[in-house]
Write a structure and sequence with these properties.
The complex is a heterodimer of chains A (about 160) and B (about 100). Chain A is mainly α and about 160 residues long. Chain A contains 6 helices and no strands. Classes of the chains: A mainly alpha (about 160), B mainly alpha (about 100). At the A-B interface, α1, α2, α3, α4 and α5 of A face α1, α2 and α3 of B.
C-alpha cells in the first residue's frame, strides 16, 4: 500500500468513524458505520487479506448491521434533540481520549521508523484456500469452540426475546 | 510502501473514536455501535501485522473476532429489546437498576 492509497482510505475512514459517534440520529449512525466497514474491507484488500475483506462485507456490513438497523427501526427511535450531557462525564471522556492518543504516540516512537522492506509473501497469501488450510488443521479446536459459542448466543437471544418483559 | 506504524496509528485513532463514543453517548444502541468500531480497529491492526510478518495467524484471529462480535451483537440487541419493552427507554442514564 503506497502513501496515496493510505491517505485516500485513512482520512475518509476517520471522518465516517467520527460521524458514527457524533451524529444525533441512530439510523444515520448505523449507515455511517456501514460505510466505515466497507472502507475497512477495501483497506483489508490492500493488505492482502482477501478472505477477511469478503467476510467483513458479508458478516459485518451484511448480517450484523442489518440486525442493528432492524432493532433501531423496531424500537422506532427518534432523533433526540440534544442528549442530556453531564459536564463531568464529557470532560472525563476528553481527558481519557487524550491520554489514550498520547500513550499511542509515545509507544510508537519506540517502533522502528522508515520504510520496512516488503516481506516476501508465500503464494496465495490470504486466500480462502490458504486460510482454511490453517483453520481446519492448527485452529480446529478454536473453530469448534466458536461454533458452540454461536449456538449459545443463538439460544440465548431467542430465550431473551421470548421472555415477557 | 507505508511503514507498519501508519496502520497501527490509524487503528489506534479508530479505537479512540470508539472509546469516546462509549463515554460520550447515552443511547445504548450507539454505545453498541462504538464497541463494534473498537473491535474493527483491533481487526485492522491484526491484519496489518499479519501482512507485516508474512504470517496468516493474524487473519485467522480476525475470523474469530468476527464470530464473537456476531454473538455479542445478537445477545446484546436482544437484551436492549427486552429492556425497552419493560422501561420504554434506551438511555443509559435511566437504566440505573444495577447501580449502587
Amino acid at each position: 500500500m503506497d502513501h496515496v492509497t493510505f491517505f485516500a482510505l485513512a482520512l475518509p475512514l476517520i471522518v465516517v468513524a467520527t460521524m458514527v459517534v457524533v451524529h444525533p440520529s441512530p439510523v444515520y449512525s448505523a449507515l455511517f458505520l456501514v460505510m466505515t466497514l466497507f472502507l475497512l474491507a477495501v483497506y483489508f484488500l490492500f493488505l492482502d487479506a482477501h478472505m477477511v475483506a469478503a467476510l467483513q462485507i458479508i458478516v459485518y456490513a451484511g448480517a450484523i448491521m442489518v440486525l442493528f438497523l432492524f432493532v433501531i427501526m423496531l424500537l422506532n427511535l427518534q432523533t433526540e434533540p440534544r442528549e442530556q450531557q453531564r459536564r463531568g462525564l464529557r470532560r472525563a471522556a476528553l481527558i481519557g481520549g487524550g491520554i489514550l492518543v498520547l500513550e499511542l504516540f509515545l509507544l510508537l516512537r519506540r517502533l522502528p521508523t522508515g520504510d520496512t522492506p516488503e516481506q516476501a509473501l508465500p503464494a496465495g497469501f490470504g486466500t480462502v484456500q490458504a486460510l482454511s488450510e490453517r483453520l481446519f488443521t492448527d485452529f480446529l479446536l478454536p473453530f469448534e469452540i466458536t461454533s458452540i459459542l454461536l449456538l449459545v448466543a443463538m439460544v440465548g437471544a431467542v430465550v431473551l426475546a421470548k421472555r415477557q418483559g | 510502501m507505508v511503514p507498519i506504524s501508519y496502520h497501527l496509528v490509524l487503528s489506534g485513532v479508530l479505537f479512540t473514536i470508539g472509546v469516546m463514543g462509549v463515554l460520550l453517548r447515552r443511547n445504548t444502541i450507539i454505545i453498541f455501535m462504538a464497541i463494534e468500531l473498537m473491535l474493527n480497529a483491533v481487526n485492522l491492526s491484526f491484519v496489518a501485522l499479519a501482512r507485516h510478518l508474512g504470517s496468516l495467524d493474524g487473519q485467522l484471529i480476525v475470523f474469530f473476532v468476527m464470530a464473537v462480535a456476531a454473538a455479542e451483537a445478537a445477545v446484546g440487541l436482544a437484551i436492549i429489546l427486552l429492556v425497552f419493552r419493560g422501561r420504554e427507554t434506551v438511555n443509559a442514564d435511566e437504566l440505573n437498576l444495577l447501580r449502587w
